[in-house]
Design brief:
alpha+beta, Aminopeptidase, 5 helices, 36% helix, globular
Length: 157
């Protein structure tokens, strides 16, 4: 159960839900962030995706599944993202994008702020659990998700 105090938020950083006209910028941050992930584990996956196709996916997920895109804005520029789907039937929130921070803004606590806001909002909605499908060994899986109680579960291929 999530019950952690929020990380420190600076005055020049805002965590909020993206407006529809911010989706393309959020998709660009998502694509760039995954492309420059430590060890490039996402490259085969990203061969199918461009920032434009990711933006279409985000918008389609919003229409079909009620997805929301949470963004971190610093100096009016989107620097981090998490796409969230609230699955009321299963009682959990699903991170359909994972938390991704623009490479030049990493190691500043932005991922922690996004994760905390996501988990706080899901808890307020009555969803006690969250789920993200990711690659074992990437920085978010090693450092960020466990910080808030995340546990690795191996899923059979």
């Amino acid at each position: 159960m999530f019950d952690y105090p929020g990380p420190k938020q600076s005055e020049d950083l805002r965590i909020k839900f993206a407006s529809e006209n911010q989706i393309a910028s959020a998709a660009k941050v998502w694509h760039e962030g995954l492309t420059q992930e430590e060890g490039s584990p996402w490259m085969s996956y990203l061969n199918k995706w461009t920032p434009a196709s990711a933006a279409k996916w985000f918008l389609d997920s919003k229409k079909r599944l009620g997805a929301r895109v949470l963004v971190a804005e610093k100096e009016e520029k989107i620097v981090g993202i998490n796409g969230i789907i609230s699955e009321r039937n299963s009682g959990k929130g699903r991170f359909f994008t994972g938390i991704v921070v623009s490479p030049s803004y990493r190691r500043q606590g932005i991922g922690s702020l996004i994760l905390h806001k996501t988990l706080s909002d899901l808890k307020a909605e009555g969803l006690p659990r969250a789920e993200v499908e990711t690659i074992h060994g990437i920085p978010a899986a090693k450092y960020l998700y466990p910080k808030y109680g995340g546990k690795s579960i191996q899923v059979p291929a």
